[in-house]
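forwarding from the other thread:

> can someone predict this with fe (ii) ion?

sure thing
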Amino acid sequence: MTATALEPVKTIAEFAVAPEEFQDAIRKIVRSHAVNELYGARVFDEKAIALAPTPYAKWLTCRVAMEEYGHHVRFRELGEQIGIKAEQLVPGEKKPLSIFAFPLASWEEFCVIKLLADLAEILQVEDLLHCTFHPLRNLARMTMPEERFHAQFGKDFCLELCRTPAGRAKVQDAIDRYFPMLPPFFGASSSKNNATFRRLGIKQRRNEEMRADFLERARALVEDELKLTLPKIVAAA
Ligand SMILES: [Fe+2]
Ligand SMILES: [Fe+2]
């Protein structure tokens, strides 16, 4: 059975009798969030607590780490309710995203990751705010203020680091090395999965539209606010 209408699916009980195509699409998205939130919390946020230079910075980094683990917990709970197997909700058989392959080694790098990767995450979560599956829509609405806090955290600490020439150079260097990993995060242009998500009212925008929006917002942030340079990237697939 294929779904054609954009009828909202308001509850887990309604989900259980929704068309298979809709169920599969939702499971794909929930699974990906559950896996990647956990992986990111492990390789970046938890590690960054040790890198944070002051008790204040450690305190805020603990909060960020707590929230990222919290995102995993929420997506995992939803995943269990919609019938995703426990082992599919943690990193393992599903490879985490390439943006997590960056070997985090410094506080400056972490601040840049929050500045840019969490901005990318905000765009992804924004796209689910009007999702036809209401439990996922509600989860996105709950997650959004926290992702905004992470991006603001990144911006505030980057601005602080940029007050000295040495700090500025380190932030620029981290941007130069990390930023090129981000555009592929939005997925392939003309993606079939994305077309299905839009047809079912789960997502709103094409991958390439989100990528273009991200590049524009990242450029404004880095060039207008931090007065640094965003590396030129070759147009992605
Ligand atoms: Fe998150
Ligand atoms: Fe985040």
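The radius of gyration is 18 Å. thats all i got for now
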